Amino acid sequence: MKYIRKSAERGKANFGWLDSKHSFSFGNYYDKNHMGVSVLRVINDDMVMPGQGFGEHGHRDMEIISYVIEGALQHEDSTGNSYKVPAGDVQRMSAGRGVMHSEFNASKEDKVKFLQIWIQPNVTGIKPSYEQKTIRQQGQLTSLVNPNGDNGALSINQDASLSRLVLKKGEDITLNTEQRIGYLHIIKGQLNADGEQFTAGDGFAVEPEQTLEIKADSGIEALWFDLPMT
């Protein structure tokens, strides 16, 4: 692995109602060394205060995934969708030729913590679309998003896949990139990857034709991105 993104080094934005940490350049945070990996453009680790949120704003030609860790989001958009997204659910919005939407903390009492993920699509100008599912963990690695929505996952307009990795303390797994690029973002826990220690908020890329050996030092939850070579 050549690209490592430590949690403490991420970009930060705090507006009172929002505490956000940016793995890659976003908004007012810009670092030419952290512009994304392959078609993965954004991983924002967001904490939104009770009753607060992102007012109506627009997106275009981007695949936007929300992964709720704690609490629940309330999603509204200009295509008529209105959904509550609880912890454990995965949401995908394809902005296509343009969509307006808002996302608020669904609770007036509790904070909501979620990951906002942007992936560049391989087609532009399409009709906006929305999907949301509760996807139960099946084994160590469970597909959440893939190009065709196979195995109960959400679909995406890109040759990219997103899986949830869950390991108990002491468990291990081997991941292979083949002719692809991998990226792992750790949500909870601590792990050892190829002899290096990582913890919640850390991320790292894995180059093509590499084998990654992971061992859980505690119970872990992470997201594994399988990305095209660009």
UniProtKB/TrEMBL annotation:
Query: Which residue range or ranges hold the Quercetin 2,3-dioxygenase C-terminal cupin domain?
Result: 145-227
Residues annotated as coiled-coil are none
Q: Which InterPro entries match?
A: Pirin, Pirin_N_dom, Quercetinase_C, RmlC-like_jellyroll, RmlC_Cupin_sf
- Recite the UniProt cofactor note for this protein: Binds 1 Fe cation per subunit.
Q: Which domain of life is it from?
A: Bacteria
Q: Which UniProt keywords apply?
A: Iron, Metal-binding
Q: Which Pfam families match?
A: Pirin, Pirin_C_2
Which GO MF term does the entry hold, naming one?
A: metal ion binding
List cofactor names only.
Fe cation
Binding of Fe cation, residues: H57, H59, H101, E103
Q: Which residues form the Pirin N-terminal domain?
A: 12-119
Q: Which family does it belong to?
A: Belongs to the pirin family.
Name under which the protein is recorded:
Pirin family protein
Organism, as annotated: Cognaticolwellia beringensis
> Where is the organism placed in the taxonomic lineage, from the top?
Bacteria, Pseudomonadati, Pseudomonadota, Gammaproteobacteria, Alteromonadales
